[in-house]
C-alpha cells in the first residue's frame, strides 16, 4: 500500500511540497480553504468585469530563479513568462527615473559614476546565480557547497542597507538601492536589510523580473497541472480545522495519512495542530513574531499611468519613494509602529505587457505601501498622493478601485496575518531560527510546516515547500 500525504494549503509552497512528495511516489491530497488555489498567487476580477488583478504577488524574480520551479516543465502546463524591457523603474522628483535593466552592462552604463561599484557588487553573484540560488534559498548552513561564494555574499548581505549604500556616490543609485532594500520590511539601518537589496537586484540581471501571462493564477494552475500527472489532487473550499480529524473514518473512507505538510503560518498551525503538538513546541510557536503589513489597492484604468518620466513605461514594476533618506525614514516609521505621510509604494502595471489582463485599450495596476501589522488606518490618500507625485493626473485614469486593508487581506488568505505578506519578520533572530530551530519539523513526527514562515522566507519560489518535503521524506524513509 502506498504512503499517503496531506498538504494543507495550495499556495506555491504547499504545491511545491505536494509535487516533491508525489514525485517520490506518495499519494498526495492538497486541501485548500479558499474556492481558488494559489494563496497569494491568485488572479481575480476585483474591480470590473474583464479586469484581471493579481490578489497578491505579481512579479517573480525568485519564481523564475527558483531552483525547484525552474526544474519543472511548467511551460507544458501553460506558464509563459513575460519580461518587460526593464526590470524596475524608480522615478525621481526631477522628472527622470533610474532603471534597473535586465542586462547588467546596460545598468552599469546607465548608473554613470556608480557603474563600476554596482558591477563590482553584483557581477560575482549574477554570474554564479545557479550556484548562489540553492545556497540562499535554504536554511542557513555552516557547511555550504560553495563556501567562498557564500562568504562573499555574507560579508555584504549581513550589513544594513544604509551602510552598503555608502559605496554609491550618486543619489540616483542610492535611491534605487533603497527601494530594493525596502522589500525587507526592515528599517534600512538594520542588519540583513542589504541582503534583500542584493537578492532583488541579482536575479533581475540573472533571470529578470517576469510576470506570468494571464496573471499569477497561471503559475498556480501550471503547478496544479503538473501535480495531477502524478495523481495528486487539489480540493478547494476544504478548510481544515483539526488535523486529527483527518485521521478518522468518514463516509466509510479511512482518511489515514502518513504525513501532514502545512502551508500555514505558526498561528494557523497552532489552531489546526491541536493536541498533536507538544506544549513546549506550542509555546515556542506562540512567540513567533509577524512583520509589518501592507495596504493594497487594485485599479482598473482607462489608460496607461501618465508618468512624468516616460522611462517608467518600460517596466512592469515601479518603486515610488524618492530619495534614499526619504525611503529610509518611511520604513523606520513603519518598523516603529507608525504611519508615514509619504509611504514607500510598490506598484505593478502588468497590462502594459500582457493585454490579457484588461479589455482592449484599458489597463490594470496595483499598488501597496507598508503599514504596521494589523493597521486600521486608511492609507488611500497617502498612497495615491505618492503615485500622483510622479504621475500627475493618475486619479483621472481610474475607472474603479478595490481597497485591501490588512484585515481584508487576511480574510482572503489566513496566512497574511495582520497583512504580513512575508510570513513573519525577517530580522536576525528569525533568520537563524524560523519559525523555531527545528525549521520545518514540529514536535509531532508526522507534521511539518512548509509556509513562508520557514526558510528561506517570503517570496514566490516554492523552496520552503521543497525543503520541508525533502526533510519529511528523509525522516519517513528512516522511520
Structure description:
With 479 residues, the chain is an alpha/beta fold. The protein folds into 2 domains: 4-45 and 56-79 and 212-288 and 419-478, FAD/NAD(P)-binding domain (3-Layer(bba) Sandwich), CATH 3.50.50; 83-211 and 292-412, Polyamine Oxidase, Chain A, domain 2 (Alpha-Beta Complex), CATH 3.90.660. It contains 17 helices and 18 strands. Helix 4 packs across helix 9. The two termini are 16 Å apart.
Key traits:
FAD/NAD(P)-binding domain; alpha/beta; globular; 5-stranded parallel sheet; 17 helices; 5-stranded antiparallel sheet; 479 residues; Polyamine Oxidase, Chain A, domain 2; 2 domains
What's the SSE blueprint?
Layout (H helix, E strand, L loop, with lengths): L3 E5 L3 H12 L3 E5 L11 E2 L8 E2 L6 H4 L16 E2 L3 E6 L5 E5 L2 H7 L4 H12 L2 H8 L10 H11 L3 H4 L6 H11 L11 H14 L4 E2 L3 H13 L4 E3 L13 E2 L2 E2 L4 E4 L3 H8 L5 H8 L6 E9 L15 E4 L3 H12 L9 E4 L14 E9 L8 H11 L7 E7 L1 H7 L15 H5 L14 E3 L13 H16 L1
Parallel strand pairs: 1-2, 1-12, 2-9, 12-18
Antiparallel strand pairs: 3-4, 5-8, 6-7, 10-11, 13-16, 13-17, 14-15, 15-16
Helix pairs in contact: 1-10, 1-17, 3-4, 4-9, 6-9, 8-9, 8-13
